[in-house]
Design goal:
Residues 2-116 form the Response regulatory domain. 42% of the residues lie in helices and 22% in strands. By secondary structure, the chain is an alpha/beta fold. It folds into two domains: 1-118, Rossmann fold, CATH 3.40.50; 124-214, Winged helix-like DNA-binding domain superfamily/Winged helix DNA-binding domain (Arc Repressor Mutant, subunit A), CATH 1.10.10. The longest helix has 15 residues, at 105-119. It is elongated, with a radius of gyration of 18 Å.
Length: 220
């Protein structure tokens, strides 16, 4: 899962990046409104955490532009405690949720996970797809009820397929949500991860539709 953190306070941004990474997100950062507007408008994110007090372009303006331009990513806004008018404006402008600073990182992660699940049409944290069980909160995977050890990268891939289990996911889309902006995004790397997961999970879990992409197998 891919997240964009829009926060000009480097200390807070780094804390958010670490927390989201520990929760299974691949986090990227933007430190001003203009950069955020460009990144959010041209890249596909599963979650955006947006501070409203930004240099160059304020967060509320960025939010309004994103929604007007068709950006559908779930957006969690961060506001100063007591700034209730900002929260109302943010929700009215298209934000999906908000947190007032200072906040507990555990609450932010819980809200982030809930937004991603709802965006994928999945209200629950635990999902059963055929032989596969995925717990998005605890970041665990089981096959036929038996826990299976996977790497963070492998979990992100399975989680993304789980949240989009009703469609075939193209390789390019998977690569975008697995890797950061500075990482190499090569198709053969994706194929290697898929091959490792198939060895771990066994047959009948990850299917390939030639020329289109990957999806999770469902029982007939």
């Amino acid at each position: 899962m891919r997240a964009l953190i829009v926060e000009d306070d480097r200390r807070i941004a780094e804390s958010l990046e670490r927390a989201l990474a520990s929760a299974g997100f691949r986090a990227e950062r933007a430190e001003d409104g203009e950069t955020a507007w460009f990144r959010g408008g041209t890249e596909d994110y599963d979650l955006i955490v947006l501070d409203l007090g930004l240099p160059k372009l304020d967060g509320l303006t960025v939010l309004k532009r994103w929604r007007a331009e068709g950006c559908e990513s779930p957006i969690l806004i961060l506001t100063a405690r007591g700034a209730w008018t900002e929260r109302v404006e943010g929700i009215d402008a298209g934000a999906d949720d908000y947190l007032a600073k200072p906040f507990r990182m555990e609450e932010l992660i819980a809200r982030a996970r809930a937004l991603v699940r709802r965006a994928g049409g999945r209200g629950a944290a635990r999902h059963q797809v055929g032989r596969l069980t995925v717990d998005l909160n605890h970041m665990t995977i089981a096959i036929d009820g038996v826990p299976t050890s996977v790497t963070p990268l492998e979990f992100r891939l399975i989680a993304y397929l789980t949240l989009h289990q009703d469609k075939v996911v193209p390789p390019g889309e998977l690569l975008e949500h697995l890797y950061g902006e500075d990482d190499a995004r090569e198709a053969n790397a994706l194929e290697a991860i898929i091959a490792r997961l198939r060895r771990k999970l066994g047959p009948g879990v990850i299917a390939t539709r030639r020329g289109f992409g990957y999806h999770l197998e469902r029982p007939e």
